Amino acid sequence: MSKLFAFFRVKFHNDFHPHTKGMISVHNGYSLLFLFNLLLFFFAMLFFDPRVAVEELKLILFSESHLVTDYIAMTSVGSALLNSSLMTFVAISICYHYRVPITGGAVSAIFMVTGYGFFGKNLLNFIPIFLGVRLYSYFMNEPLKKFLLIALYGSSVSPIVSYFAFNDSLPPYFSLVMGYGIGIFTGFLMVPMALYFQGLFQSVSLYSAGFTSGMLCTLVAAICRMFGLTIELRTLVSQEQQPRLILMMLVLGSVFVGYGSLMAIKKKRLNMRAIWSHSGKIERDILRDTGVYNTMINMGLMTFLLVAYVVSIGAVLNGPVIGAIFCVIGFSACGSHVFNSLPLLAGVTIANLLSVYTINETVTVTSAIFAMMLCAVTNAYGWKGGLVVGFVHASMVLNIDFLHGGLNLYNNGFSGGLVAMMIIPLLDLSKQLWQKSADQAQATKDEKPHMDLKAQESEQPLVPLDQTEGKPKFSEPVKVLKPVAQKKHYRVGEWE
Predict the structure, then answer these.
(1) Which of 116, 128, 192, 472 lies at a CB distance of 3.0 to 4.6 Å from 121, suitable for a disulfide?
(2) Is the dihedral of CA 130, 131, 135, 137 positive or negative?
């Protein structure tokens, strides 16, 4: 028994302390992720109805699942939670199997899988995307671990698989083969495109994979429309408020804040100022820079902020809304925090108040929540820049879903990428003009004392040189000249 205990102790020590084997990770990162999924599974079982479990899960797996397909409206709260928990477990297990280091990017990718497990993403439409990324790593002779996070982010195109595989207008077996083939090919193309598009946003958009997914799905939708296959947008969302989900999110936020604060104080590592002064850029990892416990506190605070926003405007906490909240909680490990998110939230709210849409509709609420992806704009350009970008994002995201026909789950990520490419150059221009005017004002201010001194000197009366206190005044030292002796002229034959 002691040998068995020693074996498991060594095994778990190696698993949760991979830095001893030369890998970069965070202490007990995977254990915390598995505990989070266990808590999610507990709530799923709490709200689950076992009498209709099999039928509801089959309905989720074989649905077309393109935007917007709310699994809560299609089935029930318990089934949607169970599907999300199952997808989260698959994502964590894959990362754990390939020993992916626990960073902010890994946490955000896993939480995005959790969020989109409430609408649009399930096990059947996730597998082909993963196989496509695996095929790319095989052909490029690169380890899959290098592209695994792109596979998790890139599963945003999962509705492509479901739309073609379970489309009633196509023969059953042909549609299944066609859907999985398109999914594998899309996953294959996802990696090089994501690596290329990542540098276009100057690190101000956290959802670069969402932009890649949007471009791919726009291409697929355009080809389908060219051959007469119409992709109709759908709006299947729950309109019934779910107090159980509100309670669940408050419990999760309390667990994040409580456990993170307790451990940070115990280890004397509490430093929220480092979180709030973070740049918010994707290459700067909050989890690695500030520690896992401070990051957990930040994730809990963002949970409270977003739930309070949804409740205060009278919106329904349905599948898309709670999925958006989980995605932003994940990106709180990358760069989002309360202070750089509030200007974006205010900008989107102002736009929604002025638009023809009501502020508590699902589409406007999700656009406000997903605007947190542009949090680095607030750090780089101030709260005014965040306000402007949030306003523009709200107007863009409400009119862009027609391009990809709802095949892209990361509709806000697609919009955020476009907004970043359009607005960031203008913000840079305004910043340069402001800096130039400030420099000119400073130069004018520095030259003014010299000009005043010259004016004072010019106003003084002129005094003759020989009348200044009885002494001559010279502008330069006087040179004393020696008298030159006169030359003598001699006659011929005359000597001195």
Answers:
(1) 116
(2) positive
Contact 168, 124 (CB under 8 A): no
Q: How confident is the model at residue 262 (pLDDT cuts 50, 70, 90)?
A: very high
Tell me the chain's radius of gyration from C-alpha atoms.
34
In whole angstroms, what is the distance from residue 320 CA to residue 70 CA? Answer: 6
Q: How far apart are the first and last CA of the chain?
A: 136
123: its two tokens: 């096990």
Contacts of 204 (CB under 8 A, 6+ apart): 281, 374, 376, 377, 380, 420, 424
* Sole residue written with tokens 């309905």: 59
Q: Using CA atoms, how far apart are residues 3 and 199, in angstroms rounded to an integer?
A: 51
**3-state DSSP assignment of residue 30:** helix
Cα diameter, the chain = 152
Collapse the DSSP code of 69 into the 3-class scheme (helix H, G, I; strand E, B; otherwise coil) and give the result.
strand
Give the pLDDT of residue 12: 44
Its sign, for the CA torsion 288, 294, 298, 299, is positive
* Phi and psi torsions of 399, nearest 5°: -130, 15
- Cα→Cα distances 43→59, 317, 450, Å: 21, 16, 74
Give the closest residue to 373 by CA, choosing from 361, 362, 389, 358. 389
Per-residue pLDDT at 90: 96
How distant, in Å, are the alpha carbons of 191, 212, 364, 455 from that of 412? Answer: 20, 12, 11, 62
431 pLDDT above the threshold of 90: no
CB 179 within 8 A of CB 166: yes
Has residue 159 got a pLDDT over 60?
A: yes
Q: 203 or 245: whose pLDDT is higher?
A: 245
